Amino acid sequence: MIELRSDTFTLPTPSMIRAMAEAPLGDDVYGEDPTANRLEELAAITLGKEAACFMPSGTMANLTSIMAHAPRGSKVLVGNEADIYIYEAGGASVCGGIVYEPIPTQADGRLLISDLERGFPDDPDDPQFAVPALICLENTHNRCGGAILPQDYLREVREFADTRGIPVHMDGARIFNAAVGAGTPVAEIAQYADSVQFCLSKGLSAPIGSMVVGSAAFIATVRRLRKMLGGGMRQVGVVAAAGILAIDEAAGLAEDHRRARLLAEGMSRLEGIEVALAEVQTNIVMFRVTDPRFTWKTFAAIAHEEGLAVAELGHGRLRAVLHRGLDDTDITKALDIIERILRSS
Ligand SMILES: *Cc1c(COP(=O)(O)O)cnc(C)c1O
Q1: Fold of domain 252-343
Q2: Which of 8, 83, 201 to mutate to test the pocket of ligand 1 (most atoms within 8 A of CB)?
Q3: What positions does the domain Aromatic amino acid beta-eliminating lyase/threonine aldolase occupy (predicted)?
Q4: How far is the CA of 59 from the centre of ligand 1 (A)?
Q5: For 60-86, what is each residue's pLDDT tens digit?
Q6: Which ligand 1 atom is at minimum distance from the Cα of 56?
Q7: Which of 131, 207, 233, 275 could form a disulfide with 287 if both were Cys (CB 3.0 to 4.6 A apart)?
């Protein structure tokens, strides 16, 4: 099977497995796992923040971040196409008593300042309104095809948030894809957000884990919330060891980006497939099937039978995600399979 559904299918590399076997361990709830501590230091330094906290998942990383920033009864301004809004089971409402205010998402992943502006009540002292306490951005943007938010845009949001006196959280599940794709150091991207979460378990190919980074005081709150939610783990260095290598080897994502372009270029030459080539900036290729003999669902099902797995993102959109588990031959094979399906009668 050529697995293009997600970069979460990556397996730990042989050097990660070695590091996991050899990692010095301790009880991390006591703050005594040396490998987890090393990973947290590395994450904080790499993203240019004071402190970091290891998390079992990106979902918990976002949830603890939102809860640390936003009090009960407040609202978070979040894109209506954001992972936080769509795929995280409403955690901030369920656990934090926080209202999500979905903001229209532009095709390139941006939330317009004018739309964010509308999230603020005319009279913030009027007791009937929930008060905005946080802006959440997503970079790269998953459902917008791995789009990288431009640095100028991030600066604008930062300035807007400052005039309104509220923090910015970046769901940077794939922030290293943004850094590699734009050729911008990851800390320069992170500088515009008060907090960032990023996934070690996607293209970076660690088996488990995400990091939250931010100020020391913020991370102390996040750590308490992690414990409350059941995410305090013990000899967690056994997975943190893979996370250290994941960060050290992040530059390797460039290969995934090159292969995403190869795949998208190949697909753009096929009659019956529509792919927005210009929108392929990182490791994600979004496409549609225009051949009337197929629906997007029947196409995905046939591809699966033929040995090619792609993700169904809804409303006719299919997604192919490139990752470390693939090589150039897989791209050729994937294109062959797609071409064969389209040629069949
Ligand atoms: C995968 C993902 C998450 C959640 O991470 P999990 O580890 O799967 O919980 C959050 N945000 C974005 C943009 C993601 O792609």
Answers
A1: Aspartate Aminotransferase, domain 1 (3.90.1150)
A2: 83
A3: 3-288
A4: 6
A5: 999 999 999 999 999 999 999 999 999
A6: 7
A7: 275
